[in-house]
Design brief:
By secondary structure, this protein is an alpha/beta fold. The chain has one domain. The chain contains 9 helices and 7 strands. A hairpin with a 2-residue loop joins strand 1 and strand 2. The protein is globular and about 50 Å long. This is RloB family protein. InterPro entries: RloB.
Length: 201
């Protein structure tokens, strides 16, 4: 529940716990774009160990539990990629997140599928090398994207969020399968309004 002061409800405090640099840079861009002072992206440094999802979730819960009362969050999100996680591991993540009232923001194969949607529709699976190669192209980032990852996205993507959301909305309509069985997949689009309080992108 959001905190109250003199019986007046104030804006909820939102925490976003990210797997890596790309996710953190992207959500920082959105925070600046929508001027949402109540969004606090927090990067969780987790080395790839084959269980990034659950490691990220348990770390986020530990961080939340240790927050002082005045800094308690109203809603927490974790942002991570499929990477090498199995369906079974992702199902465990789903159950754990539900038990701890945390929402999962997930991309498959990685967040670059969402980044690509800023430029074009996506209706098929891509490998990580494919995504890096495409995004490195002249019509996209026009640089070695693998080396660019983690740098600010603002100049290139800030005015393309509406395009990405439209493309992701279309992808979500393609299949009713659970998120952990889908590739390509992202649900970043479904949380933009909820997190940033906007309906125009």
């Amino acid at each position: 529940m959001a905190r109250r002061s003199r019986n007046l409800r104030i804006k909820p405090i939102i925490a976003i716990y990210c797997e890596g640099d790309s996710e953190k840079a992207y959500f920082e861009m959105l925070k600046h774009k929508y001027h949402s002072a109540n969004v606090h992206p927090e990067k969780i440094n987790i080395k790839p160990m084959g269980k990034q999802g659950m490691d990220l979730l348990t770390t986020a819960v530990t961080r939340i539990e240790r927050l002082p009362q005045r800094k308690q969050v109203d809603q927490a999100y974790v942002v991570f990629d499929r990477d090498d996680l199995t369906v079974s591991e992702l199902q465990k993540c789903e159950s754990y997140a539900k038990d701890h009232q945390i929402k999962i923001i997930f991309s498959s194969v990685n967040i670059e599928i969402w980044i690509l949607m800023h430029f074009q529709p996506v209706m098929r699976a891509f490998t990580r090398p494919e995504l890096n190669r495409i995004l490195s192209g002249e019509k996209y980032f026009d640089t070695d994207y693998a080396a660019f990852k983690g740098c600010p996205y603002d100049e290139l993507l800030v005015d393309r969020v509406k395009i990405a959301k439209s493309n992701a909305d279309k992808l979500l309509q393609v299949s009713p399968d659970p998120w952990y069985n889908r590739n390509p997949y992202t649900n970043i689009n479904t949380y933009l309004t909820e997190i940033f309080g906007v309906t125009e992108f």
